[in-house]
Amino acid sequence: MTEIAIDELAGRLGEVAILDVRSAHEYDGTLGNPCDPRQGHIPGARHLDISQLMQLEPSQIEAALDLEPGGELVAYCHSGSRSEIATQLLRALGYDARNYVGSWHEWSRHDGLPVEV
C-alpha cells in the first residue's frame, strides 16, 4: 500500500515520520495556495522541497530525514503530485514510504486537525 488516508494519518501523528515536499514558503505558511483556508504544515513534518530531494545522495536523504532506510514515512505536498514522486523515490531507496494523496489541500480544510506555522 503506497497511500494513506487523512483519518489514519491524523491518528498516527507523532508515530510516523512526515515529510512535506512543498516549497519553503508553502511549508512555513507565508505563501500558500489561496484555495487553502489555512496555511502552514502538518505538525511534526520535516521539510525537504521536492527539487532538493531529487538532487541529494541517499546518505544525504537519510541525514535530512533523520530516518534510516526501512523506516516508515508519509510524504505530502499540496495535492499529492509532488509527494507521489517523493514516495516513489523514497521507496526505491528502501523506505516504507506512503503518499498522502489529499495532502495540504485536504488537511487545511479540516478545522479539527492541527496546523503548525
Structure description:
With 117 residues, the protein is α/β, with parallel strands linked by helices. The chain has one domain: Rhodanese-like domain (Oxidized Rhodanese, domain 1, 3-Layer(aba) Sandwich), CATH 3.40.250. 34% of the residues lie in helices and 13% in strands. The chain has 6 helices and 4 strands; from the N terminus they run H-E-H-E-H-H-E-H-E-H. It has helices at residues 6-11, 24-28, 50-53, 58-65, 81-92, 103-107; strands at 17-20, 46-47, 72-76, 96-99. A 4-stranded parallel β-sheet has the order 2-1-3-4, covered by helices on one side. It is globular and about 35 Å long. The model has no long low-confidence stretch (mean pLDDT 97).
What is this structure, in a nutshell?
The protein is of the alpha/beta class and 117 residues long. 34% of the residues lie in helices and 13% in strands. The protein is built from six helices and four strands.
Task: Give the topology.
Blueprint: H1 6-11, E1 17-20, H2 24-28, E2 46-47, H3 50-53, H4 58-65, E3 72-76, H5 81-92, E4 96-99, H6 103-107
Parallel strand pairs: 1-2, 1-3, 3-4
